[in-house]
Amino acid sequence: MYKTIIEPFKIKMVEPIAVTNEEQRIEFLEAAHYNPFQLDADSVMIDFLTDSGTSAMSAEQWSGIMRGDEAYAGSRSWQRMEEVVKKLTGFEFVLPTHQGRAAERIIYSALGGEGKTFISNTHFDTTRANIEFTGSEAIDIPIPEGTQPQSLHPFKGNMDVTKLRSIIEERGGESIGAVILTVTNNSGGGQPVSMSNAKDIRSICDEFDILFLLDCCRVAENAYFIREREDGYSELSYKQIAEQMFRLTDGAVMSAKKDGLVNMGGFLALKNKELAVECTNVLIITEGFSTYGGLSGRDMEAIAIGLEEVFDEKYLEYRMKSTKYLGDGLEAMGVPLLLPVGGHAVYIDAARFYPQIPAHEYPGQALACQLYLKGGIRAVEIGSVMFGKYDEQGELIPSPMELVRLAIPRRVYTQSHIEYVLEVFRDLKNEKNEISGYKITEEPRFLRHFTAHFEPLKGRV
Length: 461
Ligand code: F0G
Hints:
The longest helix has 20 residues, at 313-332. Helices cover 41% and strands 14% of the residues. It has 17 helices and 16 strands. Strand 12 and strand 13 form a beta hairpin. The mean pLDDT is 96. The chain has a seven-stranded mixed β-sheet, sandwiched between helices. A three-stranded antiparallel β-sheet has the order 9-14-11. The protein has a two-stranded parallel ribbon with strand order 1-10. It folds into two domains: 22-51 and 312-456, Aspartate Aminotransferase, domain 1 (Alpha-Beta Complex), CATH 3.90.1150.10; 59-309, Type I PLP-dependent aspartate aminotransferase-like (Major domain) (Aspartate Aminotransferase, domain 2), CATH 3.40.640.10. By secondary structure, the chain is an alpha/beta fold. Ligand F0G is lined by residues 50, 52, 99-101, 124, 126-127, 182, 186, 215, 217, 255, 257, 266, 407.
């Protein structure tokens, strides 16, 4: 076996990267109020902000786009997408949406409201926001290992089923809006969830008659880990594993911008007809008719193809090994990581990288800014900027972890881009003791990480 991971594709079309220098980037960052979300993409060299909607589509998908049927009702492209989603999920009712959070808004506004509780291994930020927006409470219960960056548990994305039971017993089954299993657990570090965990959740939900939903936007990547790490799955295809997981649940919410290998799209798929009818009404009022949601025909064609391609064995193996390659390289140079390396991203433990910066001075934000300044690399803070709350005295209640995520777009960067990122980290490591924190100077009420303004505490970077 050769060590080099070759990308299992050739490149037919290229997109130039504008190469910038540190002086220029100081200006760009200041203009962006030290928030990488506010940077122009053209001023970024390696964009690891997200793996969402940033995939390169295949020749097959681009051909599909030309075949897209733009009929308002009952288009051929919708029928293809519906068929692929039905086969994969096993659910009878499929609602197309323009992206994951549109599906979330529809389902959680139907299930939520004052007095309801939603329980998840970890709610993604848009999931939490959509739930809290209805007046409901969203509770995260990852297993204890899930919040310890050093624990090598093979399924750190699992939900704590003991806590699940006790919360349900305490609050009563009828007050639980749904149990949501996010695979892989994005906000918990892209960590996988085992099939046995999903089975345990199913039986608890059965016992208390609670709806069990899968946030399945990285379900193919999760299936890879199940085959690698869980007994009894080595003979199954990745797709068969994913199919099994869907069949343990009552419905799924998907942002197809991840494992759908497209730039836009999503869906809600449900088993229950009554709930599907209620959601379809909202879909038609707010997104579009039930056979396109917020999507054009060509988008739906590309999703139908992407959802097949993502289960290609060679693709998934390359994808997961190349993420691990970046993680292994960083680990070898002593950069503290959330371990084991997850599927779509490498998460750096910024609290340990910059031990001199306390949580309320946002070590993750400091690292995200340094990455941009040194290397033009854009990453996202997943720590107290994203998940911090204030107590009644206005003091920050920090997030359990201070992470920075390097999310890898699918089929976009080559190994030499990754080598460059590793080189930049060598520099960051050498200068790490000189770096100080940030303060927030402006922030909105919800999802503050997107638009908040920051200032370096020492006045300049
Ligand atoms: N659920 C999970 C687990 C996600 O990671 C995301 C998006 C969503 C739901 C919402 O989907 O963006 O299509 O509306 N995650 C992106 C990210 C934004 O960068 O991780 P969306």
